[in-house]
Amino acid sequence: MDQTLPPDQRIDLAIGGMTCASCVARVEKVLRRVPGVHEASVNLATEMAQVQAGAEVALPALIEAVRRAGFTAAPMQAARPDRSGREKLELIASFLLSAPVVLDMALPVPPLAQLVLASVVQVWLGARFYRAGFAALRAGTGNMDLLVALGTSAAWGLSVWDYAAGGPLYFESSVAIITLIRLGKYMEGRVKRDAARAITALHKLRPETARRADGAAVPVAALAPGDEIELRPGERVPVDGVVVEGVGSLDESPVTGEALPVTRGPGAALLAGTLNLNAVLRLRVTSAAGASFLDRMARMIEDAQATKPRVQKLADKVAAVFVPVVVGLALLTLAAWLAHGAAYPRAIINAVSVLVIACPCAMGLATPAAILAGTGTAAKLGILFRSADALEQAAHVDTLVFDKTGTLTTGQPHLQRVVLFGALSEARALEIAAALAARDTHPLSAALRRAGVAPASDFMALPGRGVRGSVAGAAYLLGSAALVPAAPAMADGATWSWLAGADGALLAGFAFTDTLRPGARAALARLREMGLRVLLLTGDRREAAEALDLGVEIIAEADPARKLALIQELRAAGRRPAMLGDGINDAAALAAATVGMAMGSGADVAIEAADVSLLRPDPALAPAAIALARKSWTVLKEGLFWALIYNALGIPAAAFGLLSPAMAGGAMAASSLCVLGNALRLRHWKPV
């Protein structure tokens, strides 16, 4: 089987055996050294590596590089063994074996029994630290496991020596460190799995089988676009499709966050993972297996959780040199205590405390834990962040620029009236306009299209202005006043589209009205309360925008070039603008904004250009996305702060003999759990 990867393909690997930020730095380093690898990013919380590589890179080469560094690697699609059950049993055994040794002062245990129990804990339950620590040492680096192995070995070895010499024993230090750290890692694993539920929940929404129209059950992977399937009440939609027959209510909340059931009938699009509540529906499949909106959504969340914001890269650099520095500090502690006349057992125990408490676990978990929890919560609300950088940038947005049609309004305008200027009848003017609109994607064209009208020939879309084409051999223009200069100024609040001949002679005008989306005004008010500057940027007339009475700055009659220019002007002035739009006309501005936000119901090109996708057409998701990004960024900074403060205070305390090794082990485990627990608060975050 050929394992060579296509050019510039991204490879996702599941990484096993990582325990701290130093492990992350090591895995990234060895992956980047593989010839042909352009970039590698490793996430401690998700235990995942993203590798960008050229065609010359073979998958086994990446896996072997990780293995030589002391870790395991496998393709993400490969099932990872669940070791939580075994880890739980080993943790219980560790507690049972350690308890008599730790409680020796209250219930004296014979020295020989202490030696046997502590040795079993050290050799059996501490073996994982030796394996991983030795692998790191062999690779020329250090990690948390190496610090634990050195510290517990020193405490155990000192006790064995003293046992032979009849001196005091310190077995409680070695067994307490191993037990407490294993407890911390077990709890940490549970917390990380809890934080990663967003993706797991999405995958569980997709059924494994589907029912063809003939009643035969088939694997979902066997379905292809064009196939027809039957969906019964209580069943989830297996793939994206279009309703061919039947009308029913569907629960779309797990995918889009829409709280209320929606009614879908013939011609309506259904998303994989949504729940059919009450009808028998026949669907025509529109997406291949693995290419549904649900699959794309899961991949976007995975991408966001696997990437790193800039602040994490600094933390990784610190962690890469942290272990050698800590070993040096432990040796310095040992030497200092001996130099001041302390007995060698006291000096060794204090050095052990320094080794144990200085683990960079919390530092490595602070950022990915906040990203993991923040993006997972966002997905439940119907907000998709494309990357960790998008989450970071959204937290610092100070200006939000809205498109109007399809974003703040429903994007389903209705023809209100027709005004004639030439010899055409109203019926003929509508027929010509419908022919010109037949191939256009603008919402106004959708309002003009009529069944049975043949499309115009020589059709050309003129973005931001309108369309042109030929009907019955005659050339026409249909669009805004920017395309038809002869159009008169209209004082009403309608949106106007003008029909003219090829020479610009005005033939007819069409007035449209659109409906403001529910909650649009409240969303704009919420943004202003959050301290953001809010602008309405529209290609429509100022009168039409002002008629909505939104109370925001309005920039009207803006074509795509003007929209792009405005975003660039804001950025040049030092602003950090976010742009929210839904159409092709918005794509350039979305890409240029500090954060591009696209309505999930909008054009694919707009969604692809955006950093954030709102899965349902609800303007209230815009302030929710920014508020959640701000909260996530605050939690991230809190985690990094406490991780740094913990080491800044803990290492000196251990060096000065204020912490026993057992206390140091407990504090080290507690620090990681505190960082993760702080991040998990985001799972319960709700928009105001």
Kindly describe this structure.
This protein has five domains: 67 residues, Alpha-Beta Plaits (2-Layer Sandwich); 238 residues, no CATH class; 82 residues, Calcium-transporting ATPase, cytoplasmic transduction domain A (Distorted Sandwich); 125 residues, HAD superfamily/HAD-like (Rossmann fold, 3-Layer(aba) Sandwich), CATH 3.40.50.1000; 100 residues, 3-Layer(aba) Sandwich (Calcium-transporting ATPase, cytoplasmic domain N), CATH 3.40.1110.10. The longest helix is centred in the C-terminal third of the chain and has 35 residues. It contains 24 helices and 26 strands. It is elongated. It is an alpha+beta fold.
Pick out the low-confidence regions. Answer: 1-6
Taking the alpha carbons of the first and last residues, their distance comes to 54 Å
| Structural class determined from secondary elements | alpha+beta
Radius of gyration: 32 Å
How much helix, percentage-wise, in residues? 40-55%
Main sheet record: 7 strands, mixed
- Kindly estimate the percentage of residues that lie in beta strands according to DSSP: 15-25%
* Total beta strands: 26
Approximate shape: elongated
Topology:
Blueprint: E1 9-16, H1 21-33, E2 37-43, E3 48-53, H2 59-68, E4 72-75, H3 84-102, H4 111-125, H5 127-138, H6 144-165, H7 171-195, H8 197-204, E5 209-212, E6 217-219, E7 228-231, E8 241-245, E9 248-251, H9 253-256, E10 262-264, E11 269-270, E12 275-276, E13 281-285, H10 293-306, H11 310-320, H12 322-339, H13 344-357, H14 361-381, E14 383-385, H15 388-395, E15 399-402, E16 414-420, H16 426-437, H17 443-448, E17 457-462, E18 466-471, E19 474-479, E20 495-501, E21 506-513, H18 520-529, E22 533-537, H19 542-546, E23 553-555, H20 560-572, E24 577-581, H21 587-592, E25 595-599, H22 604-609, E26 612-614, H23 621-655, H24 661-680
Helix pairs in contact: 1-11, 3-4, 3-7, 4-6, 4-7, 5-6, 6-7, 6-13, 7-24, 8-10, 10-14, 10-15, 11-14, 12-13, 13-23, 13-24, 14-23, 14-24, 15-23, 23-24
